[in-house]
Amino acid sequence: xxxxxxxxxxxxxxxxRARGRVRDGCTGLWGRGLSRILxxxxxxxxxxxxxxxxxVSNHTGYVDVxxxxxxxxxxxVSRGDVARWPLIGLVCRMAGVLFVDRQxxxxxxxxxxxLDEALVAGRTVVLFPEGTSSSGEAVLPFRSALLDGxxxxxIAVRVATLAYRTLPGWPPASTAVAWHGDAAFPPHLWTLAxxxxxxxxxxxxxxxxxxxxxxxxxxxxxxxxxxxxxDLRATLVESAx
Length: 241
What we know:
Strand order of the largest sheet: 1-7-6-2-5-3-4
Structural class: alpha/beta
Strand content: 15-25%
Number of helices: 9
Largest sheet: 7 strands, mixed
Radius of gyration: 17 Å
Number of strands: 7
């Protein structure tokens, strides 16, 4: 705890640009540490994008944040109520997570400006365009609102895809790793922590996606992520122990 407080103090007194880099580095440390604690065996395909990239991914729950944070220095766009969660909200605020209140349409332009400012400052931002988490068996439709800046500025958006596999005899990843719907957090975390191992797969595509139309951009990104998820899931079945 003392180390956490000291780290927070360092972040607060850092220069604005360095502050973002320090926070992103902290996200990586937390991600790697929590991945080990939860028994994630991480498999990464492809190279993470350079700093300052906008990355989109499918979303199954809080484990995605640990996995992506462990793979590269980055920050995330998260729904607004997470900022008020005990402990997790504090960690997210310290890490410089960008919050958006999806229940208030008027908050979207503010969140979009914050996202653009983070990119200009050289931070890598991960966006989950589904707007919520799922079982990880398919990709929900992508929302385009927060992609408006990328479309207008012709930003090349990078694609990442996540998939998980649990060991035989244990609950499937769709319930044990994916946290979605009305599942309560404490029992879900308890079940996940009790597992001896979870194989976590993260694939980065080398080719970015660009479009001057945000809805077209969202559609093309959804197609890429969906295709890669289907391929990853097929690979997991073929290589199952």
